[in-house]
Amino acid sequence: MRTIIEPFRIKMTEALPLTTREERETRLASAYNNIFLLAAEDVTIDLLTDSGTGAMSDRQWAALMLGDESYAGSASWRRFERVVREITGFKHIFPTHQGRAAERILAATRLKPGDIVPNNSHFDTTRANIEYVGAKAVDLLTPEGRDLYSEQRFKGDIDLAVLERLIEAEGAQKIPFCMITVTNNSGGGQPVSLQNIQQARRLLSQHAIPLILDACRFAENAYFIKQHEPGWGNKTLLEIAREMFSLADGATMSAKKDGLANIGGFFGCNDDQWAEDFRNLLILTEGFPTYGGLAGRDLEAISVGLMEALEDDYQRYRHATVEYLAQRLIERGVPLVRPPGGHAVFIDAAAFCMHLSPRDYPGIGLVNALYLEGGVRAVELGSVMFGKRLPGGGEAPASHELVRLALPRRVYTQSHFDYVIEVVDAVWRARDTIRPHRIAQQAPFLRHFTAWFEAA
Ligand code: F0G
Fold first, then answer.
1. Are 236 and 225 in contact (CB under 8 A)?
2. How far, in Å, CA of 125 to CA of 159, rounded?
3. Could you tell me which residue, 294 or 1, shows the higher pLDDT?
4. Exposure string (b/e) for 150-164, b if CB count within 10 Å is 16 or more?
5. 20 CA to middle of ligand 1, Å?
6. Best label site of 45, 117, 271, 286, fewest CB within 10 Å?
7. Does residue 126 line the site of ligand 1, with CB under 6 A?
8. What are phi and psi of 92, to 5 degrees?
9. pLDDT (tens digit, 9 = 90+) per residue, 249-292?
10. Mean pLDDT, to the nearest integer, of 185-199?
């Protein structure tokens, strides 16, 4: 059969709120035109994020009942450790309440002011945690990776030539570790090839610089490798994942993505000193090392979810869904980042709203138009999120004006995506009516979460 179906049937339903345009106008106005300030009950299809928003399987729900809530040495912890070790091979494994907790402790224990951490692209919390301790987060994406429309397959690859120049210019002692984010969320969910990780590993080893994977979407990345990287087509996703982790000295993980869980994360590493330092801070702020801020039942859900994310049928459906959405939007002429990534479709809002300049925040106009048209919630990744405010009141725009439609895992069916396609298409056909937006009120940092907007 050619049709790739959802490899599950539905045992429990959750009602979707269906609203009228008038209702949505009122709700958006009371949210100061910022979709982060909407009540979730006012959203029909929520594509704000793929993080923690997935549906758990019956096996995960059953595993919750096995949760051992002992403070120390719980059986749930041992099952979690066994699964994470089976996938990653790391000697030391620490649960954390989510990805950024692992990032924060890693940054606090390994970095000092003036240090540099290269990455293909830092996710915003990773960057913030590195900068918080006075170090510098540097993005080293290849030129193809920065080109929204290049059809190259592994656009998440780190630029090895630039990495080598950086090491030579700054000296290895200023680089306590290098990161690679799989898949590269900020760059459109683009995958990283095994060859690139292998070559980065070789280069870093010559300078004794450890490699840390930001592994949130490791299973989606493994599927891209299986599909598109020569030599890996006959391997299982677990074998590919193991190979990826074997090249790294450690990893930070948000289990809210490829852990198929609603909360959780972990840090893994091989070095005993790194582990001891991490453990000490973990106890201070997250909890005892056998629960790390999570309930025993969360550890159970993650243990099952990590393995489900490595099932071929699941990844085939997951990738087919992203492609289904992307392909139909491309057919209608909607400008999208190519090729579609693993967890989301990114619309090029600057090309979508040719009548607006970055100062008009086209991404916000598009996000709000999608909500008003059909109750679909997307998110701006453009000048509101990444623009730099200059001394004297001006603003430097972001390099791209993107709008992300992130796909929660196992939540929406094909007809939900047909609806989303219809909504985007209607907004696309009326794109000239998308209005410029101004900021009426904003916080000094991470302003996108709370800013008030006015349509001009
Ligand atoms: N790294 C990457 C690549 C991420 O995408 C995220 C989260 C994190 C780290 C942090 O993990 O949320 O568990 O603390 N990304 C979400 C998103 C929030 O919407 O893309 P966390």
1. no
2. 22
3. 294
4. beebbbbbbbbebbe
5. 32
6. 271
7. yes
8. -115, 135
9. 999 999 999 999 999 999 999 999 999 999 999 999 999 999 99
10. 93
